[in-house]
Amino acid sequence: MLSEKKIALGVTGSIAAYKAASLVRLLVKEGAEVKVLMTGAAKQFITPLTLATLSKHPVMVEFFNPENGGWNSHVKLGLWADLLLVAPASANTIGKMACGIADNLLLTTYLASKCPTVVAPAMDLDMYTHAAHQQNLATLRSRGALVIAPACGELASGLQGQGRMEEPEEIVRRLRAFFEKKNQLSGKHFLVTAGPTCESIDAVRFIGNYSSGKMGYCIAEELASRGARVTLVSGPVSLTARHAGITLCKVTSAQEMYETAMRIFPATDGAVMAAAVADFAPESKVEGKLKRGDGSLSLTLSPTKDIAAHLGRIKKKKQALAGFALEAANEYANALKKLREKNLDFIVLNSMNDAGAGFNVSTNKVCIIDKNGAQTAYELKPKPEVAKDIVDKLVSLKLGG
Ligand code: CTP
């Protein structure tokens, strides 16, 4: 799986830097092309000559590297790499990555790269469990980075605990699994709906909701990162789709979302309905701007089309359809009812009673319920991680098989 993969390996100042030599050796043996970037502190632990010899490329430490784009090395490297692996990743480098600090070549490359990032932390146990460090790791995870947690055992300080960088063999195994997943959905096409819909009252006012679109965008990114082509039909949000495999179709109203989804769905392998679609819209839009009168104002609202239910009706056997349910009470029963009425393959339940779940937050706590009523509950996680669980579930439906 690593054959011909281009890996930018960042080595930072940790005693585990000595393991970088074995790591480079294993990666090269697997067929990967490895370019090593070291921080100044890393040179105290292992010589650039060792890593240059094993990687068969000059090791880069400074901002300016004549043999790799000169002053522009970070941009060149960022575009070249299929993966940025930071191993060992010190608490200092992880903290700087989380904050966007760019005071060495490794950090500028991280900011300039478009490829996935994997970090393998290495540090003493109390540094690892410190709230500041854990928060930095959570920030990296929430941006989609894969963190290979350190192992437990005897540490260089003589203390016992979690902090030893994972063994090079295990890191390589995790990278293989990572790249395997990357092609898991190649040739597949999915529709994802995301964000709120806005239903116009007049030229300047609308009925909307607090959906930020984050969950749907994370699902689209996760599908695309596994090789799928994704059409993301999104209501008005302030997010952008980063992955080149995502085609963004911006809509405003439930009716527009319905028409777009119905047009796209028949040619797809499935859809994930993550949009918070308005259930009602003003019966008619007032031309211009409504003036404030003396009395109260009544608006007549009529129901919008249930997009998920319509897709459920036209769904073919080999297509997968997943929806969401945001519930305040009788969560399981209501979600199961929605799943059956809309002919979904599974439904992702959010409870309004769970802190950190639902609208306008960057975490979510979900329970996935399948057609048979079987449920899997997940812990509170950043939305990109929740997206992985949802896409794993989609994959387990054996799409198109
Ligand atoms: N949905 C949809 N079109 C609608 C309403 C909902 O596609 N007009 C989809 C949502 O994207 C979600 C699922 O249906 O995947 C459930 O949405 P939700 O708003 O929780 O359910 P409703 O059926 O609208 O029921 P209620 O609001 O009464 O709970």
Give the ligands present.
cytidine-5'-triphosphate
By CATH, the architecture of the largest domain is named: 3-Layer(aba) Sandwich
Number of strands: 21
Q: Spatial order of the strands in the main sheet?
A: 12-11-8-13-16-17-19-20
Count of the domains = 2
As a percent range, the share of helical residues equals 25-40%
- Main sheet summary: 8 strands, mixed
Helix/strand class? alpha/beta
Shape: elongated
Task: Return the CATH class of the largest domain.
Answer: Alpha Beta
How large, in whole angstroms, is the Cα Rg? 24 Å
- First-residue to last-residue Cα separation: 23 Å
- Poorly predicted regions are none
The percentage of residues in β strands lies in 15-25%
CATH topology of the largest domain: Rossmann fold
CATH superfamily of the largest domain: CoaB-like
User: How confident is the prediction overall: mean pLDDT?
Assistant: 94
Task: Explain what you see.
The protein is of the alpha/beta class and 401 residues long. It folds into two domains: 6-182, Flavin prenyltransferase-like (Rossmann fold, 3-Layer(aba) Sandwich), CATH 3.40.50.1950; 189-396, Rossmann fold. The chain is 33% helix and 23% strand. It contains 13 helices and 21 strands. It has helices at 19-29, 48-55, 73-80, 91-99, 105-112, 125-129, 131-142, 168-182, 214-225, 254-264, 307-314, 331-341, 383-396; strands at 6-11, 33-38, 83-89, 117-121, 146-147, 151-154, 160-164, 189-194, 199-200, 206-207, 229-234, 246-250, 270-273, 280-282, 301-303, 320-327, 346-351, 363-364, 366-370, 375-377, 381-382. The protein has an eight-stranded mixed beta sheet, sandwiched between helices. β19 (366-370) and β20 (375-377) form a beta hairpin. The two termini are 23 Å apart. Cytidine-5'-triphosphate binds at residues 193, 254, 273, 275, 277, 279, 304, 306-308, 323-326, 338.
